[in-house]
Amino acid sequence: MVASAPREPIPLPPALAEYAGATAIWLNEAGGVTFDAGDRFIKWNPRETGISLDDEVVRLAWAAPWHPVPRIIEVGSDATGEWLVTAAIPAHSAVVEPWVSQPAIAAREIGIGLRRFHDDLPVDECAWDWSVESRLRPGIDLGPVPAIDRLVVCHGDACAPNTLIGDDGRFAATVDLGQLGVADRWADLAVGAMSLEWNFGAGFEADFFAGYGIAPDDARIRFYQALWNAEE
What's the CATH code, domain 14-87? Predict the structure, then answer.
């Protein structure tokens, strides 16, 4: 399964009955669903995914004082799944209209947002690790690990859908922080660049790197993209 907008309507789980009328707008690779309830969004995670929202909840709360992220309203669970309700932000994902039809603008703002994320969050106060050593499975050899360029709090899934862009065409917020942790910034940059082609087609990496304010480093990009693919 590839993360995308649902092709068919997805019914609201009974546990979320109080949000009747909410519409499914995103389906992730694991089967989790995001619902739009107007003034709030609901992330629903069925038990069968085997994934918990706990990591995202604690990271969202930690990042909120420094960087624009969704504000937590409610967290809950029952025998069928768990949910996270956040306040709506007046913005849209970079991979839906109107931005998917303006990929150069979207790619630039994704880069701007990622640079702001890296600049905003304090490495010394981050309790989570996303280093190569923490991610590389035994028996996987990707060659020499590149020297650290700049240690930052990485997003951990800096793919295009996780940037929100406001109606003014500017970066508004970052979402889906469940894998946030300290690592070299190229761990995020490589994944962000790779995700552009998945969502917009080829030809927008220059806009992304210009938005971030850095020249591409091909060796680091190759290594961190290989590391990402090795985890799949």
Answer: 3.30.200.20
User: Cβ distance 48 to 31 under 8 Å?
Assistant: yes
- Domain 91-231 homologous superfamily, CATH: Aminoglycoside phosphotransferase (APH), C-terminal lobe (3.90.1200.10)
Residue type, 71: R
Cα dist. 36→21, 23, 152, 207 in Å? 9, 5, 32, 30
Structure tokens at 12: 């609201």
Q: Is residue 72 over pLDDT 90? A: yes
Q: What is the pTM of this model?
A: 0.93
Distance CA 222, CA 142 (A): 10
Residue 148 and residue 224 in contact, taking contact as beta carbons nearer than 8 Å: no
Q: Is 183 exposed, middle or buried (0-12, 13-18, 19+ CB in 10 A)?
A: buried
Q: CA–CA separation, 31 vs 50, rounded Å?
A: 10
Give the pLDDT band (50/70/90) at residue 130. very high
When pLDDT is cut at 50, 70 and 90, the band that residue 104 belongs to is very high
Query: Which residues partner with 27 through β-bridges?
Result: 4, 33
CB atoms within 10 A of CB 47: 13
Q: Yes or no: say if 40 and 25 are a contact pair by the CB < 8 Å rule.
A: no
Do the beta carbons of residue 162 and residue 198 sit within 8 Å?
no
